[in-house]
Amino acid sequence: MSQSTTPAEKPKKRRFYHNLKDAYTMVKRTFGWLGWAMLAIVVVVFGGSILWGITSGHWISYPFLGLMLTTLLCLILLTVLLNPALYQQIDGHPGAVGAVLSRQSRGWIVSDTPAVVTQEKDVVWRAIGRPGVVLISEGPSNRVQKLLDNERRRIKRLAPTVPIHLVQYGHEEGQVPLPKVAKQMRSFKNVLNKREVPMVDRRLATLKPPTAQIPKGIDPNRVRPSKKAMYGRG
């Protein structure tokens, strides 16, 4: 007896307006006034262009230009607010640094999983770029400093001449807040050339994570916040 099978549904193709809708939803969760700000842009810019077009006799060209300018200003506003909204929503959650690192793909090699995860849910991420190796921690300063120092020693044994920079993410004194993590990475002076960066990555790929029990409630393979949740789809 043959069984009828139904073909699996193909995932719907995402259009640019789907991404705009997701970005708007995410930004509005943090900045509730976003809709009113966009409405004000429409009223002032587009409405003004219509009035100007009527009074000047250019009742087609001026409103068209006003529509284009209105769209551009709304997109600029959404783009400017996107990163601050993202940082505010993931700040303090496990994997927040991983989400920031995933947006620094150009010139950086970043693993999908942390280099170190402890029982207390302290985390150390490793990024490799032209400034060398950057280790970024998540957790209280009194605990993560030892983790950073230990990881630096492990890397030095394999790559003794490569610069290693330590960054603590957090809100304690001496730590770097989430919105400034990427800026801190860019502030380091370039030392390696583009060919040396993947060579260092291959060398450090032989490093095994420190033997430690993975804490309950944290999956090192899923430690980054879901992109669906970031953009209002989760």
UniProtKB/TrEMBL annotation:
Which positions, given as ranges, span the membrane?
31-54, 60-82
Protein name from the UniProt record: DUF4191 domain-containing protein
- InterPro entries in alphabetical order: DUF4191 (IPR025445)
- Keyword field: Membrane, Transmembrane, Transmembrane helix
Region annotation (Disordered) maps to 210-234
Top-rank taxon of the source lineage equals Bacteria
